[in-house]
Amino acid sequence: MLFEQIGKPNWISGTGHGQWLLEAEGRTVAQLWRHLTGNASASITDGEITGVDLTRALEQKTLVPGQDQNGGKTPFSNLQSTLTANGDTITLSDGIMTTEAAKAGFSGTLSLFRQALMLRGSIVTGKDPVRVLTFAIDGPWRKPLFSFENLASSPPATVETPPAVP
């Protein structure tokens, strides 16, 4: 009943895998959300984010900070994160996304009750010159707003792969 109410975001696709240990108590969906606790690890392989082309954004010379960058698609080979549930808020941490040309790290929150998300991250190209792009994904999870905070050429940066969740 709980997950039927959440709905499936239509801007991300792929083959999902995960380990979930969640507890909730209540007679209604709202009560379940308020009392939800637990942890999870999740990954999506061979997927795509619809609504933003991160590769194109990294190649652009100028971007307007905070401007809506919706449009395009970003294929990825792997996306993974750990999740912690506390009431209706799910905290994502240690998020990693790997594309053909870049690697991104991200973290943020999902609100089950409001069906909204707030994610922040940075994506780093593996090409020379190395470019770093800080991005934000905000709003309702069925149609979020993708925006970029900055774009810079910089010395090589790394995005650490999180340890495996037992």
Provide a brief overview of the structure.
The chain is mainly beta. 10% of the residues lie in helices and 54% in strands. It has helices spanning 2-6, 29-34, 54-59; strands at 12-23, 37-50, 73-86, 89-98, 102-111, 116-125, 131-140, 145-153.
Outline the fold blueprint.
Layout: H1 2-6, E1 12-23, H2 29-34, E2 37-50, H3 54-59, E3 73-86, E4 89-98, E5 102-111, E6 116-125, E7 131-140, E8 145-153
Highlighted features:
single chain; 10% helix; disordered N terminus; disordered C terminus
Walk me through what this model shows:
The structure is a single chain. The protein is mainly beta and 166 residues long. Helices cover 10% and strands 54% of the residues. It has an 8-stranded antiparallel β-sheet. Strand 3 and strand 4 form a beta hairpin.
- Report the β-strand fraction as a percent range: over 45%
State the assembly state of the protein chains: single chain
Question: What structural class is derived from the secondary structure elements?
Answer: mainly beta
Cα distance, first to last residue? 27 Å
Shape: elongated
Q: What's the helix-strand series? A: HEHEHEEEEEE
Largest sheet: 8 strands, antiparallel
Cα-based radius of gyration, to the nearest Å? 16 Å
**Order of adjacent strands in the largest pleated sheet:** 1-2-3-4-5-6-7-8
Mean pLDDT over the residues: 78
The count of strands amounts to: 8
- Output the number of helix runs: 3
Unreliable stretches: 1-5, 153-166
Helix fraction bin: 10-25%
